[in-house]
Amino acid sequence: MKIIEINHLSYKYNETDVAINDVSFSIEAGKYVTIIGHNGSGKSTFAKLLMGLLEPNENSIKEFGIDLNRKTIHELRNRMGIVFQNPDNQFVGATVRDDLAFGLENRCVKRENMDEIINEYAKKVNMVEFLDKEPENLSGGQKQRVAIAGVLSMNPEIVIFDEATAMLDPKGKKEIRETILKMKKENPGMTILSITHDIEEAYQADEVIAFNDGKVVFQGKPAEVLKDQKKLQEIGLDIPFVVLLKNKLEAKGVKIEGSSLEEVVKNL
Amino acid sequence: MSNITLGRYVPRDTFIHSLDPRVKIISLILLMVAIFISYSTWEMTFIMAGILGLFIFLLALISNTSFRLLFKSLRAMWFLIIFLLLINILIKPNNAEIIAFSIGSLDIYWESIFQSLKIIIRLFLMVSLTMILTTSTKPLDLTYALEWFMKPLKVIKFPTHEIAMTISIALRFIPTLLNEVERIMKAQTSRGVDFKHGKISSRFKAIISLIIPLFIASFQRAEELADSMEARGYDPKAKRTTYHKLRFSVNDLFVFILCGAFMAATIVFSVMNFTIKTPLFVPWLVIGCCLVLFYLFGLGAANARRYKK
Questions:
Q1: Cystine design at A52: which of A73, A174, B16, B272 (Cβ 3.0–4.6 Å)?
Q2: In chain B, what residues touch A84 (CB-CB under 8 Å)?
């Protein structure tokens, strides 16, 4: 089933600043898709369009088979969640507990059920012992985990990560990547859309979509897309060292198995 | 920046921490009124100030507020205190009679010394009370209490919920913005801006280089926060449930009655022109104080099991 259908989507901030330029593609339900592209390639704008935070052109976005417009926006938003880049700017509550409660309050969950839900989702992201901590006492990775718990507690069918790891240190990045994988394992039906310029994350995905200058450059399996070194460099993306090494060795006739980064490292 | 930590919430598990924030705010107002009541004679003024001081001292003791912090707040007011002293000493009170001492040709009256002492004591008591409130109550709880007090205004379509949400977000972002200030200051210092030395005009210019980036960053934050809140389904006009519930317990009722009685007593003393020489005043005062102490001990004993620590 196609859960997101994009049909001739365009968006411009003003006359000269065209962010998305006539894009069409679709995403299957239950897939883990990463969208890669350099800064300003339109990928974050795309995420905001999907959430209805920016207004798309008419009939260009269909989610769950429903056209996204002013009438359907609240209904569709209730079935999706997004984690943004800046850990601080999406932390609404005074403590972790209050922040998780914020989303539940918006969904009119009864007060008696809130504590149970808060504990359940805090446990899922390993934040139970931090429930009464204020955001200034948490690391960026921990704050992002709270944001993920906040999104998950609303049972979304699509979760979008808008460069959720970009502002984190390597340890935080790893934490979030692992949390996403765990989340995918626990909810196989959930569609995950991760916008990133962290190519290592792209290797975890089922599918990679590459954006450049507001257009989709290619879409396919990570191993295929990421093998095309020249093209990646053309659109301004860095290739991980391991992949460079693998490609060089293969050029010399040494065959290395493996599609994910870890497998490659292991086989090397 | 350390000034901001003055009066900051200190998480503890005490009787005062457990009280309903609404009751705490009302009690604060009642006690403030009691502090500002004036009496016909100086003895009365100081006796009542002493009693109130003792009561506030007890409150501070119970709520585990650090006395060091309380006196620090007094130190922060030193300029005001000296100013008050000077004004009071230089301007002769109209009913002043007894000269305390003279410096050269300047006569200093007891009246003026008492007057300034009274103001200083009042200020100190007031600041102490407020500090006890803010160190024993989460800012967020205060916001909820304010929202509750504003409820009647909903009739005239006053946006009480929006205001409470705005205040709570402002409170939430204070530490974040302070971090940002520090970061920008470091960044600007490394580019040669001097915030600490130089003439006032050049320091003012330096501050501009701090404020403008701070403003831009704050607007960006606000925009991102708005996006994130909207994405999480926030709609101020829609119906929402609330996670926090303010609970009014028996303890709150007792505290409310106690503070109300305090205020009532001070008003009676003031209006009836009580002095020490009024027949039976001193015995009644002693009995009243004993009652209050008993009351407090009773409350303490009743709650001892819960707050053993």
A1: A73
A2: 224, 227-228
